[in-house]
Automatic annotation (TrEMBL), chain A:
The keyword Transit peptide does not apply. GO terms for molecular function: iron-sulfur cluster binding; oxidoreductase activity. Keywords: Oxidoreductase. The lineage of its organism: Bacteria, Pseudomonadati, Pseudomonadota, Gammaproteobacteria, Oceanospirillales. It comes from the Bacteria. Gene3D superfamilies: 2Fe-2S iron-sulphur cluster binding domain, sarcosine oxidase, alpha subunit, N-terminal domain (3.10.20.440). It comes from Bisbaumannia pacifica. This is (2Fe-2S)-binding protein. InterPro entries: 2Fe-2S-bd_N (IPR042204), 2Fe-2S_ferredoxin-like_sf (IPR036010). The keyword Amino-acid biosynthesis does not apply. Pfam families: Fer2_4.
Automatic annotation (TrEMBL), chain B:
GO terms for molecular function: oxidoreductase activity. This is FAD-dependent oxidoreductase. CDD domains: GlpA-like_Fer2_BFD-like. Residues 379-430 form the BFD-like [2Fe-2S]-binding domain.
Amino acid sequence: MFKRLDNAAPAAMVTIWLEGQPHSVPATLSAAAAVLWLVGATGYRDHAAGGHRAPLCMMGVCHDCLITIDGQPNRQGCLVPVAEGMRLERQRRPA
Amino acid sequence: MSDASTHHADVAIIGAGPAGMAAASRLAEAGQVPVVFDLAPSPGGQIYRQLTAPQLGEDVMGRDYLRGRRLLERFERARIDYRPGSRVWWAKREGQGTTLGVLADRRSESWQVRRLIIASGAMERGWPFPGWQLPGVMQAGAGQILLKQGALIPDVPPVLAGTGPLLYLLAWQYLRAGCPPRLILDAAPRSRYATMLRRPLSTWHGRHYLLKGLGMLTTLRRAGVKVVHGIEGLRAEGNPHLQAVHYRRAGRWQSVDASMLLTHFGVVPEPQLSRGLGLPFDWHPSQQAFVPHREEASLAAAPGIWLTGDGAGIGGALNAEREGHLAALSILAAKGEPVENERTPLVQARRRELSARALLEALFRVPDGWLAAQPETTLVCRCEAVSLGELDAAMAQGAAGPGQLKAFTRCGMGPCQGRLCGESVTRLLAGHLGTTMNAAGYYQVRPPLHSITLGELADSAAPPAP
């Protein structure tokens, strides 16, 4: 869905864990941005009322970026910068 | 409420965008040490996000982004009690100042401040259309944030839709980054440009914006990017991800395959803090937004409270910087410093800027009849998944105000706290009751002003009085 431009300034990379899988991501990203970059918007979050959601605003307003960070559910993924060893779990209904 | 665990500050500034940075820097240069609370991990606000370590250069981002460096460096040099990653989640006017509840590192502290400068900025307008909740649909501002934060661009050409300068800026930036948009759907009819002839003074004052816009449009056209003007309707479709965008023009629906749709229907002041403090707002018919009252000369909204930047009315980054500067001068003047010579050019520049804004507002008006024309299944409140039809039914049953609509339908009760549906609810009520936006009213905003978890509350160092 998103790709990183080749001519981007070099960024420090950190390793985060998305559903138990390690990924190297630029340290400048928020948790939500990292998920969009790694796996796209599909499957980001299931809404309690049914239907699928993904971040809309990326600036702390919409709350459609809610994600489990280091075991804590419903964190605003767009406001939390990635950090070395961070564990992310998308909030989805079991298939 | 004041105890050992309460922190004190003479001046607190909320927001580290252009307004907050300018206010803080100027106060610091006069020997004050303001405390600055900001949501983001680094200063700059939305406009200068990531400018502390830019991911991309002027060739992609444009000149206006890099321009913020001067202000950023000034802010970083100054002696300021800067607290990034802070959420001001409650605020109360008390006696000679304001008490704030500030959450940082998952702990809450209370702060008693004598003078408060609010510089909390703007947000993108919530603008319902069928399918706006689908993965693959984002606001244009989100696209820009990803670009600034990590040099991320769409891996397939996106569709851009809506109206406003940001739509074309993002299109231009994507083009420069090697990913030209597939299609731009502009909700403004082409005839709108005749507005310029009717407002020659505003056009003159706004000539820099107009030339910049014209330059971007020319570049996009030359690159073969198709622009459709005057779209009347928009629909996003797909499951579990966006597959197609439908748009109506001249009464006829057309479709385009797309996996990404970025929309922009203008920016509006982010209202939570000012409303939470009980400051009065009025509907601004030209900005098409609720804006808080403030005194024009001093930018004060109440004793000890100043409102600056886009959170007080959309004026753009340069205007925000000037307003932050002016608020600082207002505080310094009260402390007996001579500031008049410094003030005059700022006031003049601000007046010219506001004249230019009037033109931009006219050029990029959002269509007032849009919401009422949407199908009844369209979600108005995304958080609680409340549709237009449910709101219509509640109004037919007698819900006569935003508070009642909330109680009837749960609209506005979710974690965004009504920020994305508030304007829509007022628009619906005004239409249903045949009254003005002001008379229809807005949600009562109460703490928490930001969503916080029970765990964060439990960890609070100093829990606030109810």
